[in-house]
Amino acid sequence: MAALGWLTPRRRSATARSVLAGEASAEAARKSSQEAQVTPQAADREPEFPVIGDDKAAAFFDLDNTVMQGAALFHFGRGLYKRKFFETRDLAKFAWQQAWFRLAGVEDPEHMQDARDSALSIVKGHRVAELESIGEEIYDEYMADRIWPGTRALAQAHLDAGQKVWLVTAAPVEIAQVIARRLGLTGALGTVAESVDGIYTGKLVGEPLHGPAKAEAVRALAAAEGLDLSRCAAYSDSHNDIPMLSLVGHPYAINPDAKLRKHAREKDWRLRDYRTGRKAAKVGIPAAAGVGAVAGGTAAAIALSRRRR
Fold first, then answer.
1. Which of the 8 DSSP states describes residue 147?
2. Which of 37, 226, 233, 295 lies in the 20 to 30 Å Cα band around 289?
């Protein structure tokens, strides 16, 4: 019996050790099985993005030539011209300013100030509600068919992941909000024109939302929304938006101009090009489709004016 008494505790101890060993072995086998299922190709893939359910992340999209072909302000101008807000000579001047800016790819302060003054003089004295209503019509007439499907899909991916998506543009905020609403986006940051009692004064509140101002707007919105910019994404076609793109952890160059393409490659940013005319990208002409729209719109407006005479 003494021998049996000596064996009993040992058996119990061995059983406990066996359980522990068995559990450890099972865990090792499970891990090994999971690792075996990950092929080298799968391990090298980019991580899933956007991350579903990440409420600290959001996406910020430039508008002109990123979400939409051409300049929103020019398309809006075409609509206002159709509604007799200004004369043919004003449209031709405005169109030339837009074309010069897109072709040159750089800002001339005096040139841009002239363009802003022209645009503001057009809406001065009109009611904000009137322009918002007209904006809905103009979107259907000139903008709806100019949305880049590829960029729209990127925005939808963020929405499907439960993230907020904002447009960030130098275009008037009223127009930007119309476009954002029509695309089912969260909202828009845009240039704010001063109004008193619902009537435009012909002045701006501050400066146009352009270049560094976009980055400041995104930074402020992220702080207000409690976002982690390192988990956010930003999309643009222009080197002018490098400050905004540099703020986030996931910058994308969309239909990039030559300077942004070069910068994106140096920084290993992701690039997407949805333009059919690859020649435009090679020669460094930013958004050839936008320039074409400007030229075509001007020609059409002048022809229409002549027919009316």
1. B
2. 233
User: Which residues are marked as active site?
Assistant: 62, 64
* Helices (H), ranges, 139-287: 149-160, 173-182, 212-225, 242-247, 258-267, 278-282
3-state secondary structure (DSSP) of residue 157: helix
Q: Where are the alpha helices (DSSP H) in the chain?
A: 2-37, 40-44, 72-82, 88-104, 109-123, 128-138, 149-160, 173-182, 212-225, 242-247, 258-267, 278-282, 288-308
Amino acid symbol at 58: A
pLDDT at 163: 96
Q: What is the mean pLDDT of each run of 10 residues along the chain (309 residues)?
A: 45 51 49 44 58 93 94 85 77 61 53 64 88 92 95 96 95 93 96 92 87 94 97 96 97 95 96 71 34 33 35
Distance CA 103, CA 168 (A): 22
Over the Cα atoms of the chain, what is R_g?
A: 28
pLDDT of residue 85: 82
Q: Six-digit token pair at 126?
A: 């009109």
Angle 109-123/72-82 helices, nearest 10 degrees? 40
